[in-house]
């Protein structure tokens, strides 16, 4: 079985290639464009999400899965936000693993993905299961506050000042809010929140 490792960090890529070479034939790519070019020669792709310049892991996954008889793609990343998971799955990834997984789990995931079966880290599986059980994720008190600030038309800097938090924290909360509400823009987030009676204008 042939595996393509896609990661823009040379040290990480070197470690993964060394690890997987015990069980598989391994090739490597340092960016999304290279991964698309090499994908037709392998059975499974292990794809990082953030790949520096050029297309990211999600777009590379989308292009690979659009190929005729394209290989299965498993996301292998440190990012585990709901938004990242949803984007990856929608792009066609058959699996989503975190880089802190055990070596044997990674090898098992490659074999499982090659057969067309879904592969998920336990934490990711638990989260997705929770979303199925509770399809309308609850917003935290802080997320509600940020939505109310959005409804006032405040920018991230103004929200950060109003709530005494950093702009980076505001961005993180927005990503989570967008994922929970299933939206992609600030306007859509406010509109959806109002429709669901989470906030009042």
Automatic annotation (TrEMBL):
Residues 2-114 form the Response regulatory domain. Gene3D superfamilies: 3.40.50.2300. It comes from the Bacteria. Keywords: DNA-binding, Phosphoprotein, Transcription, Transcription regulation. InterPro entries: CheY-like_superfamily, NreC/VraR/RcsB-like_REC, Sig_transdc_resp-reg_C-effctor, Sig_transdc_resp-reg_receiver, Tscrpt_reg_LuxR_C, WalR-like. Residues 132-197 form the HTH luxR-type domain. This is Response regulator transcription factor. It comes from Lentzea sokolovensis.
């Amino acid at each position: 079985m042939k595996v393509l490792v896609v990661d823009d960090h040379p040290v990480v890529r070197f470690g993964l290639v060394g690890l997987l070479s015990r069980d598989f034939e391994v090739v490597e790519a340092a960016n999304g464009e290279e991964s698309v070019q090499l994908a037709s020669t392998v059975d499974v792709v292990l794809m990082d999400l953030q790949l520096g310049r050029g297309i990211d892991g999600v777009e590379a996954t989308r292009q690979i899965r659009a190929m005729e008889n394209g290989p299965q793609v498993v996301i292998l990343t440190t990012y585990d936000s709901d938004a990242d998971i949803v984007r990856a799955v929608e792009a066609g990834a058959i699996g989503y693993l975190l880089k802190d997984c055990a070596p044997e789990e990674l090898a098992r995931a490659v074999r499982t993905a090659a057969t067309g079966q879904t592969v998920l880290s336990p934490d990711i599986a638990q989260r997705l299961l929770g979303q199925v059980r509770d399809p309308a994720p609850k917003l935290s008190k802080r997320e509600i506050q940020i939505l109310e600030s959005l409804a006032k038309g405040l920018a991230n800097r103004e929200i950060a000042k109003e709530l005494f938090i950093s702009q980076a924290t505001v961005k993180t909360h927005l990503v989570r809010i967008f994922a929970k509400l299933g939206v992609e823009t600030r306007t859509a987030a406010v509109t959806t929140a109002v429709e669901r009676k989470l906030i009042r204008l």
